[in-house]
Design a protein that fits this description.
alpha/beta; 3-stranded antiparallel sheet; single chain
């Protein structure tokens, strides 16, 4: 479970963002803050894994919060959510180590995509074993496999596609969308989209498992 702190000076916006996060599997909101000082204090008390950070706070610029929490020794990740469209704001966010930058206003699907991408990268980094330069390049790369990237439809990320592919390749037998979701750390609906994509492009095979009642279960196997 990834713990999230929502930081926004607008109470209603913060409540909406909190509702969005709580609809996404694998994430939970552990607190909210409306000022930079409150955010710094909350990070120290709650130790979140990820901060959804607005830049325009009443007492300080959002990235100054990052400076404060880093100085205090906290290494939580930051996803910037802001109406700031200036290129310099984006560049500064990148320099401060933001994992993503999402422009307001945004919908649920836009946030879900970015949080699921973040969860996949976080899982991959924790599980990474570095034996040579290729492993280093793979860990640092955010572009994924070129072959996968070229064929992915809109809304699917190469990072997640690579993990779903790996789950299929390494599993003996068939996987359902739910089983794949558990292995990769994404929602069942998202896993199903990637699995159906692989099936539609001829890289995975679908078989139907019939039960006593209801619809048959779709199970997937990677084709070598």
């Amino acid at each position: 479970m990834i713990d999230v702190l929502v930081v926004d000076d607008d109470f209603m916006v913060a409540r909406i963002h909190r509702g969005f996060v709580e609809r996404i599997d694998g994430f939970r909101v552990v607190g909210a803050a409306s000022t930079g000082e409150q955010a710094v204090t909350a990070v120290g008390q709650l130790r979140p894994d990820l901060i959804l950070l607005d830049l325009y706070l009443p007492d300080m610029f959002g990235l100054d919060v990052v400076t404060r929490i880093r100085a205090a020794g906290h290494d939580c990740d930051v996803l910037v959510i802001s109406a700031a469209r200036e290129a310099e704001a984006v560049r500064r966010a990148v320099r401060y180590g933001a994992v993503n930058y999402l422009l307001k206003p945004f919908g649920f699907d836009e946030l879900r995509t970015r949080l699921e991408q973040y969860a996949v990268r976080r899982t991959a980094l924790r599980a990474a074993v570095v034996a040579d330069q290729a492993d280093v390049d793979r860990v640092l790369s955010r572009s994924g496999s070129p072959a996968v990237t070229a064929t992915l439809p809109r809304g699917l990320s190469p990072e997640t596609a690579e993990l779903v592919e790996r789950a299929l390749r390494e599993h003996e037998g068939t996987l359902s969308a739910s089983e794949c979701a558990d292995r990769v750390g994404i929602s069942r609906v998202s896993a199903r989209r990637y699995l159906e994509h692989f099936s539609g492009t001829g890289r995975a095979e679908v078989t139907l498992k019939y039960g006593a009642a209801g619809r048959p279960e779709r199970r997937y196997t990677w084709l070598s």
